[in-house]
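## Example record

The block below lists the input lines for one assembly entry, exactly as stored, with component labels intact.
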Amino acid sequence: MSMIHFSVTALRKQLAAKEISPVEVVDALLARIEAIDPQVKAYLHVDAAAAREAAKSADVTRPLGGVPIAIKDVLNVKGDPCTCASKILKGYIAPYDATTIGKLRDAGAILLGRTNMDEFAMGSSTENSSWGSTRNPWSLAHIPGGSSGGSAAAVGAHEAFAALGSDTGGSIRQPAALCGCVGLKPTYGRVSRFGLVAFASSLDQIGPFTKTVEDAALLMNVLSGHDPLDNTSSRQQVPDLTARLTGDIKGMKLGVPKEYFIEGIDPQVDAAVKAAIAKYQELGAEIVEISLPHTEHAVAVYYILATAEASANLARFDGVRYGTRAEKPTGVLDMYGRTRAEGFGPEVKRRIILGTYVLSSGYADAYYKHAQKVQELIRQDFHKAFEKVDAILTPTSPTAAFKAGERTASPLQMYLADIFTIAVNLAGVCGISLPCGFTMPEGDTPRLPIGLQIIGPNWGEETILRAGHAYEQSTGWHKELPPI
Amino acid sequence: MEYEAVIGLEVHVQLKTNTKMFCGCINKYGGLPNTHVCPICLGMPGVMPTPNHDAVVKTILTGLMLECNIATRCKFDRKNYFYPDMPKNYQISQYDEPLCEGGAVTLNLLAYPKDAQKLETTVVDKKVRLVRIHLEEDVAKSQHDEGQSGVDFNRAGTPLMEIVSEADMRTPEEAFAYLTALKQILIYGNVSDADMEKGQLRCDVNVSVRPKGQEKFGTKCEIKNLNSISAVRRSLKYEIDRQIEVVSEGGTIRQETRRWNDVKGETAVMRIKEQAHDYRYFPEPDLLPLNTSLGLRSEAEVLMPELPSAKKARLATQYGVSEYQASVLSSEVALADYFEKAAEAAKDKGLVANFLLNDYLAINSDLSTIAVPAPWFSELANELTAGKINSKQAKEVFGLMVSDNPGNLTPLEIIKAKGFVQVTDTGALEAWCDQAIANGARSVADYKAGKVAALNALKGQVMKLSKGQANPQTVGEILEQKLKAL
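Predicted C-alpha cells for the full assembly:
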C-alpha cells in the first residue's frame, strides 16, 4: 500500500509525525494523476505548480493541513476556471472563493484541481460534460455515476484523498456508490452554498467524497456551519462529528422502507444491501420495517421543482457579462438565442425548457404548485419515519455502474438512476453512501462496487456517520482497491 | 357628454441605505460606470443574496407612515425576464406576499399645484388608497451608442420600493398632489431623497377615461418616461384630452404603453399590450421568508417620525402661527426644524415665522438651505418686540443679516454698527411733530378736510427728521392729538 492509498485520517497522522512531507504527498498524487488520469479523466484542470507551492508552506497542525483535496468544477475557487463542464462558461475565471473553499483553505487543505461533472450538475453518469466523459476506476468501460462523477472517480481511483461535490438529487451519493467510495449529502442548510453554481437552490448541498466514513466526518467538521452570505444556511450548532465514531451502535433503530426494495432493482444490489441490513442486526441495531408511502412520486416532483429553479438559475448565462458569447450577434435576442443554443448541451436545454414550462402561466398550478404540495407529503413521510427510527437503510442506486453510452439515448432511464436518492433532497434530510459489496464479474464486466445509503433526519449527520462507521469497520469493503 | 379620468400610479422609490439590497456594495448615485459592483450584484455564477436589513426596516416604516397593514410574514419571489440590464435575468421582488398592503396618501392643500390650490374642484385632504408596497432590487442602466450598447451596473441591486395606488385619482392635479404628498412623507421618514431627476423616484401612470357617472373603467393606457412631477401632470392632461377626443368621436382606446415626450408635450405609442407578460414568478429559494414580528417592525416603529399633518397642527398650537404658515413650515422637515430653533428664544414666535416666510422668501426662494444661524431670528425679533428698533429698521437689519453680511455680524452687532436706536422720548418726538406740522400746511389742510391718509405724509416727514429712528406708532398718536387740537 502506497502513500496515495491513505485515508485523510491516516495521512494526517503521517504528516503530523513528519513521517512524510506535504510536498511528498502532492508529488505522489500528481504522479498518480499523470499515470492514470488520461484513462479515468476525473480532472478537468490541475494546477500542479500551485499545489506544489501550497505544499511548501502547508501548516500540518491544522485540521486538513497539507491534505490535497479535489474540487468539483461547480464551485468557485478564486483565480481558477469554473466551467461547470459547460461550453457557456469557457474562459470564465472565478473572481471569488466559495465559502466552502475558504473553509478548506483555513483548515490548511491544498486545493488540487477541478473535477469533471455533468454539465451544470445535470446528469447521473458524467457523460453530459462538454469536456468528455469520466470513467469508472473499477472498469473503464463504465461510467462513474454523476453528476459529481469526476470527484467520485478521483477518490475511488486514489487520485485524490478527498473531494468536494454537490448533491441536488443524488449527485454525491450515487457516484460515490458506483465508484466504491463514501459520499455524504448534508442536511439542507448545514453547509453554505455561497459560491456553488446553483442548479436547484432549494435542493443543492455541497458535501465530501472520502475513502472512509471517519474522513467524511472530518471534512464535515470543516465544512459545516452558518454563513452570513447564505441566507438559507442554518445556525444549528455543529457537533464534533468525529468524536462519537465508537463503532458501538447497539440499540440504534434502523428503518427499512418497503418502497425501496422494488422490482427492477438489480438482484445483486438487493442482496448486498440485505446482507448489510443483516450485518447491522448482528451489530446490535434494531431493524424496523417502515413505509415512505409517497416515494413513487419523488422523481416526478423532483423533475418539476428542480428544473423550475434551474430555468431561473441558468438564465444569467446570456453572454452579456462573462463566459462565451455568440459571434457577431445581430441584436440582443440573437445574442441570447445563439449564445445559449451554442453554449448549453442538450440535457441542460431539456431541463431549462421543462422548468420554463412548469412555471408558465396556466401550467404553474398543475405542475409547480402541485409538485410543491407533493414535496410536503414526501417530507412528512420522512418526519413520521424518524419518529420511529434513528436512520433509514436503502440501496443508494438500483444498479451498479452501467456502461458508457448505455443510457444516453433515454433521459428517463438515466433519471431512474437517482430513484433512491432524490427523495432525500426533497425532504431536506441528510444521507450518506458507503461501499457494501461488489457485483460478480460477468463476461467483460469486472466486479463493480455497490453502495448502501443511510438516511438520517435533519441535523442527523452524527447518527448516519456513526452507523456508517460501525458497519465499515466491521466489514472492510473500503479497503478494496480498484484494478487501475 | 362629460367624461372623467381614472388614474392610478405605480411609483418606484430608491431607498436611502448605505449598501445595496442584496450585497455590500455602496448604494450611491453616479460614479464611474461599473465601479460600485461586486460578484453578487453582477450576477456572477454561484453568488447568493443577503437581504439588506435597513431596506426592510425602511419599507416597513413607509408602510407605517402610510397606514398600511404590515405583513407579519412575507417572502421574496423571482420575476423572470431577459434583459441586458438584469444581471441574473430575474429580479428578486415580492409577488403574492408583499411587506405592506392597504394604506393611503392624503392630498393636503399645499400638495396641489399652486394654481390649483384655489380651484373649487380641488378636493382637500382626499385620501388616495394604496394597494401595496413591496421591496425589490433595481436593475442596471443600459446605454446605447451607435452600433453598440453598454451596461452600467452601479445601480443594479439598489433597494427599490414599489408603491402601487388604487385608481382613486380623477385629475392630473390629484396625481400631482399624490406624488408631492408621497414624496414629502418619504423625505420625512428619511426613507429616500425621492429626487425624480436622479431616478430616486420613478412613476408609471395608468389612465383611462369614462363617461361621468359610469362605474366601469375604460381601457387604460400606461405612460412612461416621466421625469418630474410636473411632467406627470402635463402628460396626464395631454393623455386625458387625447382619450376623450377618441372616445367622444366614437373611437375606442387601445390598451398600450405610451411614451411622454417632454419637449413636444405629447404622448406617443411605445408598445401595444398584446397580452400580459409571463414573468413565471416563484418563491426565491435563496432567501428565507421574512418574519417582521421578530424585531423588524419594532425597529421601524422607533424610527417613526412626526408626520407632516401632526407637525402642522403642533406648530400652529405651540407657536401660535397661522394655519397657512404652519402648513408651509411643515412642508419640509428641515424648514420646520429650523423654524423651531429660530423661534426658540423669541418672545413673539409669530414674528419669527413672518421673518422666515415673508422676508426671507422675498430674498431667497429656497428655504431648504438657510445659512443664517437660527438663534439670530430670535435675537432680532426680540429687539423689535422690546421696542428697541422699529419694524423698518428690523427689516433692514434682516436684509443685511441674510444677504449682505461679510463680517458675519449678529443682529445686535448690525444694529449697533448702523447706530439704530428707536427714539421713544416724547419730548424729541413732539418737537419733530411740531416741525412737520409747521412745514406741511398742505397736508394739515387735507387732513382737516377729512383725508385721513394725509397723516401718513406727516408721519413720513417725522421719520425723515428723526433719521428713521422715531417709533412710528407713537409718532402717529402724537400727530393725531396735535392735529385734533389745532
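The interface with chain A takes residues 39, 42-51, 78, 80, 82, 84, 87-90, 149, 151, 276, 278, 280-282, 285-288 of chain B (CB under 8 Å). The longest strand of chain B covers residues 3-14.
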